[in-house]
Amino acid sequence: MYKQLIVILMASLLACMSGVGSASDSFAVCLSDLRNQARQAGVRSETLATAFATIKERPDVVRTDRGGQSEFVSTFWNYLERSISPTRLQNGQALLEQHRPLLMRLHAEYGVPPEYLVALWGLETNFGNYFGDIPTLDALATLACDARRSRMFSRQFVDAVAMVDEGRLNLADLRGSWAGAMGHAQFMPTTMRHYAVDYDRDGRIDLWRSLPDALGSAANYLSRMGWRPGDRWGEEVMVRDPAVLAYGGYRQRKPVEQWNQLGVRRLDGSRLPERADSVSLLAPAGKRGPIFITYPNFRVIMRWNASTSYVLAVGLLADRLAGGEPLHAKAPRVTRYRRADGREIQRHLQLLGYNITSIDGVVGGETRAAIHAFLRDAQLPLDGEPDDELLGALRSASKRAGFSVPLDETDMTASP
């Protein structure tokens, strides 16, 4: 019996070692491919030898990219409270005054108001207080070698190495976020390569130590993406009938007059101002949260970060920095939900035929769109929050359709 136990333990150890070796071999093969891509892009052999000498795989980066392991997920309200905290607002207002001469020059040259640049700076790095400390090439190589977004991060990696080769980046400076974003404004390498500017005219673009370069690059990027000077991002509104929210969503644009006809009103009760653009109605927290009309500059900020919650936080923080009022809508008591519930919601929606490509428990834009579609089809009041009421409706719909949604192992071990 003792000998059998030893044999079993040795076999298990060898299996584990084999798995580690396989993963390591796979990363090595991927690095070789990245080296070839960089070489084909014109990067010199000497640069490649130096850049690749210390690259390491970072499993923690992949875990973060896939949403981490936390049992609970923040809702829009929780995200907003963290993004526009009293401390961040106070610090942002002080920095707005401290750097006003620079910010006004950028406003005159690029058309982007100071409060937007400061809001982006605050959300990205807490006004330069935390750039991230992960070696950028490690992060980019790890994500390039992960199947989920390999093509995108391969391009980012090659552009980062190319800028080192061109002398535009110092290899020693390359530390930042888990996703490879760098400096005050957290530019990705490809964005830096095409849109960063040497605003302080010292002959070198430095997004870490030169605030003029960092904020100037941010302003240049927004301008190049189509920023409309003199226009705002959007505004909080109210609706006469919550059923109107069924027509909402980032991808659903209508002329302003149609929204007026549907009963959408400004907070003072007046009609939305006339404009030629088609605009979107957003209800990120469902019928019990704030409702927004978003204008073209909202879509410009989406080119910076494709999260609607992030863009709303930028716009709302910018409004507060410019002296605007807090949100009219009030936050509910519940500001987070269990990831296990999020996964169950996604599995129900997927089985019922709605567009869900990933069962990760995070109720983002795709899941909210599917929730809204389900609620419309079921002729239920439109809401986007992953609460017990929604889960109950989905369970009933799946049961009527003859579907069974089993718990996965993660759900079975989650806390009640």
Textual characterization of the structure:
Among the domains are: 21-68 and 132-195, Helicase, Ruva Protein, domain 3 (Orthogonal Bundle); 336-413, Muramoyl-pentapeptide Carboxypeptidase, domain 1. The longest helix is centred in the first third of the chain and has 39 residues, at 2-40. Helices cover 52% and strands 7% of the residues. It has 416 residues and is of the alpha+beta class. Helix 15 (339-351) packs parallel to helix 17 (388-401). Strand 7 and strand 8 (291-294) form a beta hairpin. The strands form three sheets. Strands 5-7-8-4-6 form a five-stranded antiparallel β-sheet. The chain has a two-stranded antiparallel ribbon with strand order 1-9.
Instruction: Give the integer mean of the pLDDT values.
Output: 89
Uncertain segments? 5-9, 11-21, 409-416
How far is the N terminus from the C terminus?
40 Å
Tell me the helix content. Answer: 40-55%
Instruction: Return the CATH architecture of the domain at 21-68 and 132-195.
Output: Orthogonal Bundle
Tell me, what's the shape?
globular
Please compute the radius of gyration using only Cα atoms: 24 Å
Strand content: 5-15%
InterPro entries: Lysozyme-like_dom_sf (IPR023346), MltB-like (IPR043426), MltB_2 (IPR011970), Peptidoglycan-bd-like (IPR002477), PGBD-like_sf (IPR036365), PGBDSf (IPR036366), SLT_2 (IPR031304)
GO molecular function, one term: peptidoglycan lytic transglycosylase activity
Pfam family, one: PG_binding_1
Organism: Candidatus Macondimonas diazotrophica
